[in-house]
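Exercise 7. Given the encoded structure of a 184-residue chain, write a plausible sequence.
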């Protein structure tokens, strides 16, 4: 006889309580979502590395003037020292985010990094067209945040093992509670 448990989740936002029950396949789909998003950003980073040297200046300098960040991105593109940093930072973080998500390690930190990159790309792609408000980079940002919110690293991921490491008779997250914000 098997014991069936119900996966309930919820929270309160602005005085409104939200409650839900996860389907029995939810764990599988959160792993697939984590791995898919990890693969997507890993291969974006690999693409940049394979065409080295990567140069973001052309993208940054040619943002649509309707974008709220066009002036900032143009100023960044004209700063050679900053571009040297950006040209290494973007592909390196994409590789790290992708590997972390696939392995299920430091998932919340990685997913937050992925969401931040997608929001920067979203703002850069802003054209002022109302039909373009919900483009793929915005959707990717929300999916990254969903992966973080569900603690997807605890399901077939290394975060479950990292959190259970004992330090001084306590689990890592008991001893260092702030790690709950980067693991999961």
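Solution.
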């Amino acid at each position: 006889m098997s014991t069936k448990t119900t996966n309930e989740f919820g929270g309160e936002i602005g005085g409104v309580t939200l409650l839900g029950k996860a389907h029995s396949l939810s764990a599988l789909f959160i792993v697939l979502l984590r791995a898919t998003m990890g693969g997507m950003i890993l291969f974006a980073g690999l693409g940049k590395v394979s065409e080295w040297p990567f140069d973001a200046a052309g993208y940054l300098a040619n943002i649509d003037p309707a974008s709220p960040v066009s002036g900032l991105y143009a100023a960044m593109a004209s700063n050679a020292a900053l571009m040297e940093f950006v040209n290494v930072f973007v592909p390196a973080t994409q590789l790290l985010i992708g590997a972390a998500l696939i392995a299920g390690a430091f998932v919340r930190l990685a997913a937050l990094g992925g969401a931040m990159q997608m929001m920067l790309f979203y703002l850069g792609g802003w054209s002022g067209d109302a039909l373009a408000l919900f483009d793929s980079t915005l959707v990717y940002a929300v999916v990254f945040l969903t992966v973080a919110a569900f603690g997807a690293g605890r399901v077939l991921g290394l975060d479950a093992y990292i959190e259970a490491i004992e330090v001084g008779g306590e689990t890592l997250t008991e001893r260092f509670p702030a790690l709950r914000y980067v693991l999961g």
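Remark. The chain is about 55% helix and 10% strand. Students should compare their own answers with the one above.
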